[in-house]
Amino acid sequence: MTLNRQAGPRLDRRAFLRWSALAAAGAAAAPLAGCAGPTGAPGPGTLVLGLNRSLASLDNKLNQFDGAITVQRAVRQALTRVAPGMVAQPVLAERFEQTAPTEWTVRLREGVRYSDGSPVTPADVDTALRSYAGVNGSFVVGLFPELPTVEPVDARTFRLRTAQPVPVLDLLMANILVTPAAANRPEQLTDGIGSGPFRVAEADGGTGNYTLVRNENYWGAAPPLESVQVRFVPEESSRVVAMRSGELDVIDSITPDSAEQLAGLPAVALDRSPGNRINQLFYNFRKPPEHPLADPAVREALSYAIDGEALARDVLVGSVSPARGVVAPALQGAVETGSYRYDPARCRQLLDAAGVRDLELTIIWETGEFPADTAVMESVAAMLGQVGVRTRLQQFQPGGDILAWRQGRGGDWDVLGNGYPGPTGEAGTALQGMFGGTPAAEATRDTYQGYVVGEVARAIDAATAETDPARRDAALADAQRRIWDTWPCMWAFVPDVVLARRQRVSGVELLPTNSYDISSVRLEA
């Protein structure tokens, strides 16, 4: 689309959004229709969560957004978890230690069992790893430099072996949720049993609504809650109204406007934490060589069209920080590699030098990918219009087919609005997941938006296999600078983690992953 208006030097939020809406009037958008609203007030022992994205399953092979992590880990558990301070803490394992450069010895806790009373076994871990490996487009598998193999020792002990050292394997294995081998498959699991403090009483993956009840066979301390209701409420205004009325107990991923509305209410509290997730306008790296976006100079040029400071200040109202690197700065090993600079004249100059005329970009994203996503995209479209770049906005319904589009199977696109978490607290695993793509992985569309750059992948491999912490950080820094020079993003930002809860809810220990342990949550009278 084309926009002939010029933006002023500074806009208040309402003026900025009005400007964006006018600029986006010609964009072809596919908005989300329908809303599943909450009904009824929760009981005294029931926690009610309102999620902004549909929870398609209680299994994380593909479904890995922030709110999902909290719910999934209430039912299924891993050998370890990433605890406060982003350190590995044993869960199903009582011992998880590196016994050789490429070997870790794991011993399961005595008495760990599933909700049906059956024991957790090394074979379940082996099957879990194989099931994750068999899923096309798995987010989790992309975090691993390589998946370990399982070598049983006895009924409770086994070894995890890798070809190369993986110094953070204890953190990585926190993302592999364990299910009985006979019930596990290389696909998302919508039901089944787990070893967590809750079990599934009702599940509807179509609506995203679930009911969890206390697992009476839980091997650990019984949780204070009797049950948890999970409701998919995509419209933020509906979630805010339900919080005000007491129909919902907890909502997350809210905009600054909603946080401001809730902040003054006596029955509502806001919890904040620095985030380790990076949100991006990521380019499609599957373009043919003759396409403008295949040229790093064009990708760099387009970044100058985006006034990131204005977006952070006027649309996201100070709730985010413009990125100064390729991963969130809170991650261990993250370094600053540069910054996004607003210079539309420079953008046009570089585009002209590259011979780029009459460029149209298709921008896609899923509703709820980050707070104020639609306002951000409309504003971005308006900014691109200022440099003569037309845009088409395509917004996907949560739980829809955006995965097929991201893999290049559903349709063509140019820029993706997306978020990538730091589930281990380590920069290396985020780099591996986003930028460690190989031709073999791309053959099955298991790369991050087609990003396959050989020298970058080799730099990441060398860094993640380094066992000396100082040398590892230096190698990670080198890899991040190489990535920055490829200009993978038009713009990126790091959001704060904000959660709203009713005052009757206590024991929420919010992590930078925007998740928390439901088993520690209590409800006051």
Brief account:
This protein has helices at residues 13-23, 66-75, 122-133, 169-172, 236-245, 256-263, 296-303, 308-315, 344-353, 373-386, 402-406, 427-435, 439-443, 454-464, 469-484, and strands spanning 46-51, 80-83, 87-90, 93-100, 103-108, 149-152, 157-161, 198-204, 209-214, 227-232, 250-252, 268-273, 278-283, 320-322, 360-366, 390-396, 415-420, 489-495, 497-502, 505-506, 522-523.
Question: Can you describe this structure?
Answer:
- The protein contains 15 helices and 21 strands.
- With 525 residues, the chain is α+β, with helices and mostly antiparallel strands.
- Helix 7 runs antiparallel to helix 9 (344-353) and helix 12 runs parallel beside helix 15.
Low-confidence stretches: 1-37
Query: Approximately what portion of the residues adopt beta-strand conformation?
Result: 15-25%
User: So how many helices?
Assistant: 15
Main sheet: strand order: 8-9-10-1-11-19-12
Q: How many extended strands?
A: 21
The biggest beta sheet reads: 7 strands, mixed
Structural shape? globular
Rounded mean pLDDT is 89
- Separation, N- and C-terminal Cα atoms: 55 Å
Give the tags.
27% helix; single chain; globular; six-stranded mixed sheet; alpha+beta; 525 residues
Topology diagram in text:
Elements: H1 13-23, E1 46-51, H2 66-75, E2 80-83, E3 87-90, E4 93-100, E5 103-108, H3 122-133, E6 149-152, E7 157-161, H4 169-172, E8 198-204, E9 209-214, E10 227-232, H5 236-245, E11 250-252, H6 256-263, E12 268-273, E13 278-283, H7 296-303, H8 308-315, E14 320-322, H9 344-353, E15 360-366, H10 373-386, E16 390-396, H11 402-406, E17 415-420, H12 427-435, H13 439-443, H14 454-464, H15 469-484, E18 489-495, E19 497-502, E20 505-506, E21 522-523
Parallel strand pairs: 1-10, 1-11, 15-16, 15-17
Antiparallel strand pairs: 2-3, 4-5, 5-7, 6-7, 8-9, 9-10, 11-19, 12-19, 13-17, 13-18, 14-18, 20-21
Helix pairs in contact: 1-10, 7-9, 12-14, 12-15, 14-15
Signal peptide: 1-36
Domain Solute-binding protein family: 89-439
Pfam families: SBP_bac_5
